UniProtKB/TrEMBL annotation, chain A:
Classification of source organism: Eukaryota, Metazoa, Chordata, Craniata, Vertebrata
SUPFAM superfamilies, alphabetized: Quinoprotein alcohol dehydrogenase-like (SSF50998), WD40 repeat-like (SSF50978)
Annotated Gene Ontology cellular component terms: small-subunit processome
Keywords assigned: Nucleus, Repeat, Ribosome biogenesis, rRNA processing, Transcription, WD repeat
Pfam family, one: Beta-prop_WDR75_2nd
Residue ranges of WD repeats: 56-98, 202-233, 247-288
Major localization listed first in the record, in broad terms: nucleus
Subcellular localization, as worded in the UniProt entry: Nucleus, Nucleolus
Domain of life: Eukaryota
Occurrences of domain WD repeat-containing protein 75 second beta-propeller (ranges): 343-666
Record has Phosphoprotein as a keyword: no
Xref: PANTHER family: WD REPEAT-CONTAINING PROTEIN 75
Protein name: WD repeat domain 75
TrEMBL record, chain B:
GO BP term, example: rRNA processing
Protein name as catalogued: U3 small nucleolar RNA-associated protein 15 homolog
Gene coding for it: utp15
Subcellular locations according to the entry: Nucleus, Nucleolus
Organism expressing this protein natively: Sphaeramia orbicularis
WD repeat segments: 118-159, 244-285
Major subcellular location class: nucleus
Pfam families: UTP15_C, WD40
């Protein structure tokens, strides 16, 4: 991450922070915890509460695999492309050991029969594109950091896909599939068997292997194929007399296969997002769990077989009971291929709003870093099938108070057959969500390029302006119901504008809503929304306008525009003249609605630079070179809950709001100041302390006590001074705070009791004194509560 | 696991008349009762007292009808010539009528012979009315005069000779005993005060005045003449308020609804129009078979009575609440009450543990098939055109439309073709059905000529498309003409105004549609 003075760029967004490598295999550790590799860390989730319990952070590169240690089920291995395998105690979140392998590791396998040996997939040293399966003998050593030196190659030319290799019954053999070849290596015979399939079968299906699973109790290998078939291989310890049976339900590639621990059922999943449960030996009987939301990428089963979990391509993990019922969903920021809608902030919930699941808008709470809900915009059954054109939400806009939401969905089969729908949603106070008010089908002849609400705070009517490639911009207005059968007011077209049959590109309302600026290629037209008169035109040829932005607050007299000929222009609307301009290749320009600041992202040589400035002066307030790799596609200023009081010049622009942006690789990033980070760190430390206090209050009390003993002996002076519990400042503060603003008592209790404890230097009386004080404190506490 | 999302059936905009509160109100009348009179019905007047009989003046007779009778309960026939303007007194006891022979006759409602005959006019008397104090009569005649008569003495009280043409309409004030208004063919309306000898206010209508109406508040007066209906403010000394021109022939009669919120006008163009009296927009329209001469509304708008030139009296009665409900909801047989409430009326006791039942989602037949990916069955089980089109669209989205259309026998294919030929020219469905038809032609190209039924339908389809293309071309011609008109009338501006762009979009749409139809036509020809 990039360091710059005291402002840092940090990643945001739920389970997998890197969309390019969505959540890696989730694995189960008993029924209570779920481990999942996510970016540079391993996350431990509780299966019942869906909360993240620990972040296991130590890897310096992407985590590629997580595995339970067969000999100790309270420990887990994780491997990463940084060339290390780490052993964790995941219940407490402690790193036990680090094995340095030295090569990037793409997957990891172990078996109970091979103790002290790890099987890892690493690239062959000469060619990066070829991979081999290597057995690593772990050295017995007490050190934290151990270098593993004893390698032996098992199989060469394997797939790097973790799902394509698996241990067979009792660890006797290991099976691996790549391309059209299935390879089984028997450890006793020390030799591999290879089975080949033809490229295409008679019906034109593709036979390529995609994944593989071995039966835990039987000599049977299940393989998934590109054409949706599942083959069950038996008798594969003979070169010629092997057999297989074929199961076919999936219509496209099977992406994951998994046997239940007893081997009674086989689970399979693919792009259809249907979890299929096949009965082993009774394959005609199947159970389905349809409509899981997105393509299934991995399936895992808990060691006792009571829970299944599927990870999906939209950054989601679903936990499923063995009775094929969904029990929990762990959802991060839903990530698609791109953010087609802008980043927006819902004025009511202050949540970040962007494309979510296909056809949905997601509301993501930035404060809690959690997905709030998905709003179904398209309201159509999503067909999970590749190559199918579906409706997608391409534009969305909120009005100033969050009472109205406008969305545009489009479906494009052929260039001539564009289907467009403009939908307007009203916020419903009762259900606390948006309800569909008006659907306008085919609002424009061609694609809508921009859409914005009038942000004036005092006007009675709300105006929505949509700008389209068909050469028109349209103003939509809420009109009262004219017919008796209508229940409420609905939206209708109020005005259609055009300018010299040029194609409009973007539109922007001034802060007070009295002006509308619409750019027509290189001309900016300024209209009055009250009378729909063309007031003036501004232009700075050559170069079509790319972005348009009005200044805010005291700078509202300025209109800023960027052109595709590397020019940033600032017009003064009082004089209708160019105030200043500068040569910059601005890819994205946006204004902070809570201050005068504007942010401009400039793309240069594969990196993006950020400039923050005020329209009144062309000198940047803050600039940051190389914010991230690639282009910044969308950005938004989100208001802060609490204003920061930083007076340093470089971080002042972050006082009122926070800048969030999305790169072309779908990373959601933001800026934080040093002070803020310190505060966050402090609070997370506090949480860690209170987290580890889990068991019973009494054991905790004693445990803590024994830990702190040494320190407290030194501060005996202090202890003597605070003899009476009432005298403690913390206690006073706690008791004087009104009860309704306090966190729950269970949360406070341990800290409170701790603060009441007075350390006693006299070792003889220690145990009894503590006990006494505990009683006193508790009584005191109870009486106060009552 | 999310539940299956059913196919969305889009709501298509309904074509034709928009349903408003007014249309609901004014459509809520039964089929009209038609009664043949002896000649053109010139006047209809309701008795102010219950049971609200009404007097119908037609040719030489005045018939009195009861509110629901189809036969006259009474008739006055002692007229020497055509009778005019039979009107009730405010107590419903007396009736006055003018006549072509210039004699004004006063009848007792229960009697037969005229109680009084007022002679003095020299020409036909077209207007008669009682003043509000009930003992005087006001008349207007073709001899350009209007007169006031005293009923007890049968003497003439006053004569006003201000109009310079026939006086064909007039009305007395219900609040002031001395005021009355006349309308004449000399294009003026005059407000007379019996206390002075001349008119107080004169209003120029601009056309021969056929009908005059006073608002219940008597602050406004409405006049009808020529194609115009005009509203005047009496309190501002007869200032014109509104001029309405919604009929294309002479307006003959005016009438207010019982609550005074709606104004009705009848015209020779065979229409009766209903206006909103706050903004004077037409909110409803009634059509009749012949030119309408007279119009009256029963108290509480219980019935609309219209008299026409062909002597037909049309009576529409308001539907009773039960009747209007019956039409809107067709009664379906429901499960019996006992079945319906089974187990539902059990009240949980204090320590009962309530197990909530998941709400079962009901899917329609085609959605059930879609859920199971039975695409052909889904297409077959959709019945209504909107639903079928929505299912075709959904199948197209799923990329399986071709599979669903393929593999059909003669019967199934002819059903499908029948549906397509029936609905393809509907502009709401065309964008979906045209590609589907293209697909059918592609799929079944090889079997064309094997089944006479299918071949006939394909030929019919070809015919239909040819017709549609011709039609669209004509429309385009018209649009071109309209565009030139628009271009010459609208001053050139930078921005496109709304109607203009609408026509433009219409144009584009037609262009698009024509292109599509041509495409399919070509295909069809190639195949057949």
């Amino acid at each position: 991450m990039v360091e710059h003075g005291d402002i840092r760029v940090v990643h945001r967004g739920g389970i997998a922070r890197y969309c390019r490598f969505l959540c890696e295999r989730g694995i189960f550790c008993c029924c209570r915890f779920l481990l999942c590799g996510s970016g540079y860390e391993v996350k431990v989730f509780s299966t019942s509460t869906e909360e993240c319990i620990h972040d296991l952070r130590a890897h310096t590169d992407l985590v590629t695999g997580v595995l339970l240690r067969p000999s100790n089920h309270l420990q887990a291995y994780s491997c990463s492309t940084d060339g290390t395998v780490r052993l964790w105690d995941y219940t407490d979140g402690i790193l036990i050991k680090t094995y340095v392998i030295g090569y990037p590791i793409y997957s990891i396998y172990t078996s109970a029969n091979h103790s002290g040996v790890l099987f890892v997939v690493t690239p062959t040293s000469d060619k990066r594109s070829e991979f081999q399966l290597v057995a690593v003998h772990l050295p017995q050593s007490g050190d934290q950091l151990v270098e593993a030196r004893e390698f032996s190659a098992v199989l060469s030319d394997v797939s790097s896909n973790p799902a394509a290799t698996s241990f067979g019954r009792g660890g006797e053999y290991i099976a691996s599939a790549k391309g059209l070849q299935l390879e089984v290596y028997f450890f006793k015979k020390q030799k591999p068997y290879r089975f080949f399939l033809k490229e295409d079968n008679k019906k034109g299906g593709k036979n390529t292997f995609t994944c593989l699973a071995c039966h835990p109790k039987d000599d049977c290998i299940a393989t998934g194929h590109e054409d949706g078939k599942i083959r069950l291989w038996r008798n594969f310890n003979h070169k010629k007399e092997y057999t297989y049976t074929t199961l076919h339900w999936h219509h496209s590639a099977v992406s994951s296969l998994c046997f239940t621990p007893e081997g009674t059922n086989l689970l399979s999943g693919g792009i259809e997002s249907v979890l299929v449960q096949w009965r082993y030996n009774q394959e005609s009987q199947r159970d389905f769990l349809p409509r899981l939301g997105a393509a299934i990428t991995h399936i895992a089963v808990s060691p006792d077989g009571a829970l299944f979990c599927t990870s999906h391509s939209d950054n989601k993990i679903t936990i499923i009971r063995s009775s094929i019922q969904v029990s929990a969903v762990i959802q991060g920021l839903v990530k698609g291929d791109s953010v087609r809608t802008d980043l927006m902030v819902d004025p009511r919930s202050k949540a970040l709003v962007l494309n979510g699941k296909p056809g949905h808008l997601q509301f993501y709470s930035l404060q809690r870093d959690k997905l709030l809900y998905n709003l179904d915009i398209v309201q159509q059954e999503y067909i999970h099938q590749s190559g199918l054109e579906q409706f997608e939400v391409v534009k969305a806009a909120f009005d100033a108070y969050g009472n109205w939401l406008a969305t545009v969905e489009e479906r494009k089969q052929k260039p001539t057959e564009l289907e467009l729908n403009l939908k307007l949603w009203a916020f419903d106070e009762q259900t606390q969500s948006f309800m569909l008010n008006t659907t306008i089908s085919a609002p424009h002849e061609a694609r809508i390029t921009a859409m914005c609400f009038c942000h004036s705070t005092d006007s009675q009517t709300t105006v929505l302006v949509s700008v389209s490639k068909d050469g028109h911009f349209k103003a939509w207005q809420l009109a009262p119901a004219t017919h008796t059968e209508d229940e409420g007011p609905s939206w209708s077209c109020d005005f259609v504008g055009a300018y010299h049959s040029l194609v409009p590109e973007c539109c922007c309302f001034s802060a007070d809503g009295s002006l509308l600026a619409v750019s027509f290629q290189e001309v900016v037209t300024v209209w009055s929304p009250a009378s729909w008169e063309l007031l003036t035109t501004l232009s700075q040829p050559p170069g079509a306008i790319r972005n348009l932005c009005f200044g805010q607050l005291t700078c509202s007299k300025y209109l800023l525009g960027t052109t595709d000929k590397n020019l940033l222009c600032c017009w003064n609307l009082l004089t209708c003249s160019l105030e200043w301009s500068t040569s910059m290749d601005v890819s994205l320009l946006l204004s902070d609605p809570f201050s005068e600041n504007m942010a401009a992202f400039c793309c240069q040589a594969g990196c993006t630079d950020l400039f923050v400035f005020k329209p009144s002066e062309p000198r940047p307030l803050f600039s940051h070179k190389a914010v991230c790799l690639g282009k910044v596609t969308r950005a938004v200023f989100a208001p802060r809950e609490k204003m920061l009081e930083s007076c340093e010049e470089t971080s002042q622009w972050l006082n009122h709001s926070q800048l969030y942006f999305v790169t072309q690789y779908m990373d959601l990033l933001t800026f934080t100041t040093k002070a803020e980070e310190d505060r966050l760190m402090a609070s997370s430390k506090q949480l860690v302390i209170s987290d580890s206090v889990a068991m019973t209050p009494f054991s905790v009390l004693l445990g803590k006590r024994s830990q702190q003993e040494g320190q407290e002996a030194a501060s005996s002076l202090l202890a003597e001074r605070t003899q009476l519990p009432q005298g403690s400042a913390a206690v006073r503060e706690l008791l004087q705070t009104p009860a309704h603003v306090l966190p729950s008592t269970s949360f406070l209790c341990s800290m409170f009791v701790e603060s009441l404890l007075i350390s006693v230097t006299d070792n003889r009386k220690k145990g009894r004194t503590i006990y006494n004080y505990f009683i006193v404190a508790q009584q005191h506490f109870m009486s106060k509560i009552e | 696991m999310a539940s299956f999302k059913p196919t969305k059936i889009p709501i298509y905009p309904k074509l034709g008349e928009k349903v408003t509160q007014d249309t609901v109100y004014w459509k809520n009348y039964k089929a009209p009762v038609q009664i043949k009179e002896f000649g053109a019905v010139t006047n209809i007047h309701f008795s102010p007292v219950a049971p609200h009989n009404y007097a119908v003046t037609a040719f030489t007779r005045i018939h009195i009808y009861g509110p629901f009778s189809q036969e006259p309960v009474k008739s006055f026939t002692r007229f020497k010539d055509t009778a005019y303007c039979g009107r009730y007194r405010s107590d419903g006891q007396l009736l006055v009528a003018g006549c072509e022979d210039s004699v004004v006759r006063l009848f007792d409602v229960s009697g037969k012979v005229a109680l009084r005959m007022f002679k003095g006019h020299t020409k036909a008397v077209h207007v008669t009315d009682f003043t509000s104090e009930r003992y005087h009569i006001f008349t207007g005649s073709d001899d350009y005069t209007c007169r006031l008569w005293d009923i007890p003495n049968a003497t003439e009280l006053n004569t006003y000779q201000e109009h310079t043409d026939y006086i064909r309409c007039g009305v007395t004030s219900k609040l002031n005993r001395d005021l009355f208004i006349t309308g004449s063919y000399d294009h003026t309306l005059k407000l007379f005060d019996a206390r002075v000898d001349k008119s107080v206010i004169t209003m120029d209508h601009g056309q021969p005045v056929e009908s005059v109406l006073l608002y219940p508040s008597e602050g406004l007066v409405v006049s009808a003449g020529g194609r115009y209906v005009k509203v005047w403010d009496l309190l501002k000394g007869g200032q014109p308020l509104v001029s309405l021109k919604n009929h294309h022939k002479t307006v003959t009669s005016l009438c207010l609804s019982s609550n005074g919120q709606r104004l009705l006008s009848a015209s020779l163009d065979r229409h009766v129009k209903v206006y909103n009296t706050t903004n004077f927009r037409v909110v409803h329209n009634f059509d009749y078979a012949a030119s309408v001469l007279s119009l009256a509304l029963a108290p509480d708008d219980e019935s609309i009575i219209v008299g026409m030139t062909n002597g037909v009296l049309s009576i529409k009665h308001r539907k009773s609440p039960e009747e209007s409900k019956e039409v809107s909801h067709q009664q379906r047989r429901r499960p019996s009450y006992r079945v319906f409430v089974k187990g539902k009326n059990y009240m949980p006791k204090q320590d009962d543990y309530l197990v909530s039942k998941p709400v079962r989602e009901y899917l329609t037949k085609y959605d059930k098939h879609l859920k199971k990916f039975n695409i052909s069955k889904a297409l077959d089980s959709a019945l209504k055109p909107e639903v079928t089109v929505a299912v075709i669209k959904e199948l197209d989205r799923r990329g399986t439309l071709k599979n669903a259309l393929a593999g059909r026998d003669e019967k199934a294919l002819s059903e499908l073709l029948h549906f397509i030929t029936k609905n393809m020219v509907d502009f709401r469905f065309a964008p979906v059905l045209v590609p589907a038809a293209n697909m059918i032609l592609d799929i079944y190209r090889s079997v064309i000529g094997q089944s006479p039924v299918v071949d006939r339908q394909l030929l019919y389809l070809q015919d239909l498309l040819q017709k549609e293309i011709n039609y669209q071309q004509e429309l385009l011609d018209v649009l071109g003409m309209l565009d030139t008109l628009f271009a010459s009338s609208v001053p050139r501006k930078e921005l496109l105004s709304q109607p203009h762009s609408d026509s433009f979009m219409l144009f584009v749409y037609f262009k698009f549609k024509t292109k599509n139809s041509k495409e399919i036509k070509k295909k069809g020809e190639r195949n057949i």
